[in-house]
TrEMBL record:
Organism: Clostridium aromativorans
Coiled coil: none
Gene (name only): argS
Catalytic activity: tRNA(Arg) + L-arginine + ATP = L-arginyl-tRNA(Arg) + AMP + diphosphate
SMART domains according to UniProt: Arg_tRNA_synt_N, DALR_1
Motif ('HIGH' region): 122-132
Subunit structure: Monomer.
PANTHER family (alphabetical): ARGININE--TRNA LIGASE, CYTOPLASMIC, ARGINYL-TRNA SYNTHETASE
Its EC number(s): 6.1.1.19
InterPro entries for the chain: aa-tRNA-synth_I_CS (IPR001412), Arg-tRNA-ligase (IPR001278), Arg-tRNA-synth_N (IPR005148), Arg-tRNA-synth_N_sf (IPR036695), ArgRS_core (IPR035684), DALR_anticod-bd (IPR008909), Rossmann-like_a/b/a_fold (IPR014729), tRNAsynth_Ia_anticodon-bd (IPR009080)
The protein, known as: Arginine--tRNA ligase
Key words of the record: Aminoacyl-tRNA synthetase, ATP-binding, Cytoplasm, Ligase, Nucleotide-binding, Protein biosynthesis
Length: 565
């Protein structure tokens, strides 16, 4: 049974208006303070339909609604406050979790919607850097949450594998590449020559011209250029795969920018036929001044296509292929204008589905005060960052629990989990400033803290000799127990909120809350040495339920749990 649904049903049954259950459910709030009840229903929005003042509606509802499952229902002003019958509530919530286990929190509400989630999308021949992890972590967890709620999701890695930079890279390769280094350490070598290219081009602008020429040749399918490009791509993908394997991230399609090379002419034609194509300084553009935006360039003066053209083609292709009801682009906020231009151009082309394309932007990632830029070469490689986190976690474990088995495996999960957690802890538009001590603190609001809470729960369950008695949930009557169960019950709500706002942090915060409530419960009450067997058994069931929820929650963030740490 879902309590929110129950409240909604009660209201629906007793209100003199034809209201959808979903609508009512959407209005129900979870009050911040216990004295305001466990659920609250504000009546403001019903005033118009019922032609009555909200406080009158609340008063009338209160008198009509049956109290079963609730200890009391109060009305305060325009609010109807529901106080659950704690005994029944605790029993229902725990039983449901123990029945549903890994499925607890899931649903099938998305079963009729196809969703495209585009994330990660690093650039070939360039480092997979800390900013790309932002996209990767958010996209991966949105994918997991939406799939968990039944949405039919397709994961796309829109690789940056096309563009004038490949012309430059080809020039750089021919002039300066060290083949040995390239095979030993592909991205570092490709980055070295790319950086060198930019330095040299400052002195000798001719190089840029050469680069453009080579990209043109690549677009025209000239053999030498295509072979080199393929080589860069294969080497890069091999490196990216290492990072994806560390993170446990996968994709359904890696159709990157190059995939659209043969699909762009049709798009430009269509734009032209709609009368939207304008010539500007030799380039072909779509004017967007009505929307207060610079024009969207679709073809440069040398005839080469650009980033935006490929995005137009990609959106149209995705709509045709996946018939999405939403296409989510998890890309940094520095590209906001680009996406507004692309979406507006689609709209002007008559694609009314353009409104279902959403840019889920995110902020910057900083270490102290260094801004990360590829061109100057001062990037932090993600693989190094992840490995460093694992290494440091290993040191902490060595200190705290030197006898632990499978130390390295545990450090892998905890170290990588800590990094992902840091990315998903705050709303995505907020910048991240990396701080090792904060990130790996076992006591703070961190990944390790939540993982540690889970491992602690599991260790209690391992130590418990299971007793063959019925759990008497009525014995779970302390404040801490009720608070914990309340949090456990809110899991699905936090997932749905995260999906609605495209904000995984809502689940991150949620698992922190559960871990905190669990620790409060654990510190206030004996579990293994409980007053009697029935209480002990009931508490053990609560521990077990908590572990399920933490595990499911962390998994939705793309983080593995460990049984011991
Ligand atoms: N490759 C780009 C970058 O690293 C991100 C691609 C974003 N996706 C898109 N459809 N334009 O900045």
């Amino acid at each position: 049974m879902d309590y929110k649904e129950l409240v909604a049903e009660k209201i629906q049954k007793n209100i003199n208006a034809d209201l959808q259950l979903d609508f009512i459910e959407g209005l129900i709030e979870i009050p911040p303070r216990p004295e305001m009840g466990d659920y609250a229903f504000p009546c403001f929005q019903l005033a118009k339909a019922l032609k009555k003042a909200p406080n009158i509606i609340a008063q009338e509802l209160k008198d009509k609604i049956g109290k079963d499952y609730f200890e009391k229902i109060e009305n305060k002003g325009a609010y109807l406050n529901f106080f659950v019958d704690r005994n029944i509530f605790i029993k229902n919530v725990i039983t449901k979790i123990l029945e549903q286990k890994d499925k607890y929190g899931s649903s099938s509400i998305g079963k009729d919607s196809n969703i495209v989630v585009e994330y990660s999308s690093p650039n070939i021949a360039k480092p997979f850097h800390v900013g790309h992890l932002f996209s990767t972590a958010i996209g991966n967890s949105l994918y997991k949450m939406m799939s968990f709620e039944g949405y039919n999701c397709t994961r796309i890695n829109h690789l940056g594998d096309w563009g004038t930079q490949f012309g430059k890279l080809i020039v750089a390769y021919k002039k300066w590449c060290n083949e040995d280094e390239l095979h030993k350490n592909p991205i570092k070598e490709l980055l070295r020559i790319y950086v060198k290219f930019h330095k040299e081009a400052e002195k000798d602008p001719e190089l840029n011209e050469e680069g453009r020429l080579h990209f043109k040749r690549l677009e025209n399918g000239c053999r030498e250029e295509v072979e080199l490009w393929k080589k860069f791509k294969e080497l890069s993908l091999r490196e990216f795969k290492k990072v994806y394997d560390l993170l446990g991230v996968e994709f359904d399609s890696c159709a990157g920018e190059s995939f659209y090379t043969d699909k762009m002419d049709a798009v430009i034609d269509e734009i032209d036929k709609k009368g939207l194509l304008v010539e500007s300084n030799g380039a072909k553009v779509v004017m967007l001044d009505k929307y207060n935006m610079p024009p969207c360039i679709v073809k440069k003066s040398d005839g080469a296509t650009i980033y935006a053209t490929r995005d137009l083609a990609a959106a149209i292709y995705r709509k045709k292929t996946y018939n999405f009801s939403k296409c989510i682009y998890v890309v940094g906020m520095d590209q906001s204008l680009h996406f507004r231009q692309v979406f507006t151009t689609l709209k002007l082309m008559g694609k009314d589905w353009a409104d279902s394309c959403v840019h889920a932007g995110f902020g910057l990632v900083r270490f102290a005060d260094k801004k990360l830029s590829t061109r100057k070469g001062d990037v932090i490689f993600l693989e190094d960052l992840l490995n460093r986190s694992v290494q440091r976690t290993l040191e902490i474990i060595d200190e705290k629990n030197p006898k632990l088995e499978n130390k390295l495996q545990v450090a892998q999960k905890v170290g990588i989990g800590a990094v992902i957690f840091t990315y998903l802890k705050n709303n995505r538009e907020r910048d991240i400033v990396f701080d090792w001590n904060e990130m790996l603190n076992f006591e703070g609001e961190t990944g390790p803290y939540v993982q540690y809470s889970y491992a602690r729960g599991k260790s209690i369950l391992r130590k418990a000799e299971y007793i063959d008695s019925q759990a008497d949930y009525s014995k779970l009557n302390s404040k801490e127990e009720f608070e914990l169960v309340k949090f456990l019950n809110n899991f699905r709500d936090s997932i749905l909120n995260a999906i609605n706002k495209l904000e995984p942090f809502m689940v991150t915060r949620y698992v922190i809350d559960v871990a905190k409530a669990f620790n409060k419960f654990y510190n206030a009450h004996s579990i293994l040495n409980a007053e009697d067997e029935a209480i002990k058994f009931a508490r053990l069931q609560l521990v077990k339920a908590t572990c399920h929820v933490i595990k499911n929650g962390l998994n939705l963030l793309g983080i593995d749990v460990v049984e011991e740490m």
